[in-house]
Amino acid sequence: MSENKNHSAQRMNIEAVKRIVGTVKTTLGPMGMDKMMVDGAGNVIVTNDGATILRELDSAHPAAKMIVEVSKMQEANCYDGTTSSVVLAGQLLANAENLFDKGLHPNVINKGYTHAMNMVLEILPTLESGEYDLKDLARTAITGKSLEASEDKVAGLCVETIKAVGDVSDVKVLAAPGGSLTESYLFDGVVVNKDIVTQTKDLPESMNVLLINTGLEEQAQNSSVQVQVDAASYSTVKNADREHLLASAKHIVASDANIVFVRDGVDDTVVSYLLKNGVFVCRRIPPSTMKRLSNELNLEVHQVAEEGMEAVVGNVNRRRYNDVDYLFVNNVVDEHKEATLILFGATQSTLDEVQRGFDDALGVVSLVSNGDKVCVGGGASYLALSVMMRSRAAEVGGRAQMAIEAFCDALESIPGTIAENAGHDALDTVLAMRHKVVDGDICYGPDTENGGICNMNELSIFEPMSLIRSAVTSATEVATAILRIDDVIGRRGDGPSA
Length: 498
Prior knowledge:
Strand order of the largest sheet: 5-10-9-6-7-8
Largest sheet: 6 strands, mixed
CATH class of the largest domain: Mainly Alpha
Radius of gyration: 30 Å
CATH superfamily of the largest domain: GroEL-like equatorial domain
CATH topology of the largest domain: GROEL, domain 1
């Protein structure tokens, strides 16, 4: 039998994918296990987040790298569901290997898989759930993670945060080790990761704030320029910058400001002058933070310190977390336009996992609050899609029908894996779920506590529809791309030109 006939290249690629999928498969579902990842320097990451595991995994095989890209795209598009997309891709390829043994050509399999994907996109909108709460989506996203112990607190924080800022891309987070997750909260305002230049124990809570989008320090002179001047002229040139800085400082004092936030550096003589006149200085503020301060305080950011500037009253509090001082700034007149999520964790490693869990939960809440539709979770929607597609597979006919049925089997691997990771029989769970869908009830998924199946709707387990859509499409596309590869050839490296 020839190499091509035996599909040796595809089988090697599928074997590599199976190994990498096996790494994350046991993390899926509420009973999924964690992975401890250790690098050569002894740095440790403990997580069950599929995207993090695959991102940190040391894999050199090109097919395995393609699977890693799937998880990255799923995380970028939907924030959650990375493990589901990878498990689905791996099962599609494993099922394709079985179809090879039955005599199907890779192109026939690809045709069937693509047809099945289009059927999923057609059927999926019919699975929309009408009644849900945003907190339910957050709870579903953090189930099985370290956050689960405080799921009500976390879910409430996620919904409160998205309602305050609008979109997950606008969420700012301050993570501080040394506290308890239950102490986390949402601050209505801006947290500045700086302290005032000169330490002082007490700051007045209400202060007049000024924003300067430049520096208040002497400009560096060009050392390559040579100019001949007399002593009097040299004194004038030397003091010009200093006089300019003094004038800027006087303009700041005249604005009635109590605190000034400056984008760049501030000369020590200016700091001293301002402090003598009751003005605190906070320097080297990032432009993004300056923009948020301007938005929160409804205050103009001045490009230079000039005459006629006016400061705006705001609350400025100093708080210390893990031996680091932060300035908490918010508006006292109008509604708050900025918010910052303050997270705590016992150690840095647990805090990192807390942040990853919050990222997933915030992401799915943001998707739905911005118009995405919702399906039941727990693998129920995947199985409902599978059963509905099987009834239509006969319409396709030919060998492609076998590929569509293999696609349906792959969809059922999601609830099957969830049940298996909980210590229950995957086949019995899938068969019971199929029976419910045939009877017209698409809301049943694996009962991870007691075995068998239970109603996901009654348990308020929901997930965004785009999460399922993205997982299916990305898994199908990478599976078909790998199946098209009939040979792996070493490339010539770029050597020195002749």
